[in-house]
Write a structure and sequence with these properties.
Blueprint (H helix, E strand, L loop, with lengths): L13 E5 L4 H12 L3 E6 L2 H11 L5 E5 L5 H15 L4 E4 L14 H29 L3 E6 L12 H21 L4 E8 L6 H13 L5 H9 L12 H8 L10 E4 L7
Parallel strand pairs: 1-2, 1-4, 2-3, 4-5, 5-6, 6-7
Helix pairs in contact: 1-8, 3-4, 4-5
Length: 265
Amino acid sequence: MSTQRTVGKLQDQVAVITGGARGIGLAIAEAYLREGARVVIADIDTTAIDEGLAALGDGESVMGVRLDVCSRESIAAMITAVEGHFGGIDILVNNAAVFDMAPVLEVSEASFDRQFAVNVKGLFFTLQAVASSMIEQQRGGRIINMASQAGRRGEPLVSTYCATKAAVISLTQSCALDLIKQGIRVNGMAPGVVDTPMWAEVDALFARYEKRPLGEKKRLVGEAVPIGRMGRPEDYAGAAVFLASSDSEYVVAQTLNVDGGNWMS
């Protein structure tokens, strides 16, 4: 897939997208390129990074960096690499996350720790480090944290994941109120159910715990969305451009639901 650069809403802005090699992250990268940004795909999977770069097809405006958000050393190295290549960071999309599910009585400590390590701790310390870089640049910035509709409510099989995404919404509010003093606007997005390759794993877990045939849960959740289908990665690109651009100048500390009408708040 080739993406041509045009003068757009994000012209010459540098955007780092964690977990950017596939799914929603890659769709946002494509949209940012169309709006004139220079894009950094930061992902733990180097093979996926290579595939993502090939899909974007723009060597001058795109770079890939391996990033483990659980390692502050890796976060610092990513920022150094981006600053050296593009001169700074204007936009951060905190998209990296992991998912697991189990009944409350079966949640393992390893699963609990892993989800909080990536979805909360990793997100926060990536935000902290990039915000520090933005402040040194003295040109403000935009930070978008990817939450979930799961952070708006509880679910019996998804207790830990729901808790991590609720934490993301709370951190978005607190960090926004602090960093706006430095000209950094922090907001979030809360996707609903999204049709990505990961849903095959999610569907298999629901089939196991709810005693369903494979594929049934995915079909049911898609039918339950008011708009009539599951989300697609590209459905999130417009909101991501809005939150990264001057169009959202007066939007601070909000988490925007982008879920086909699944949740109202």
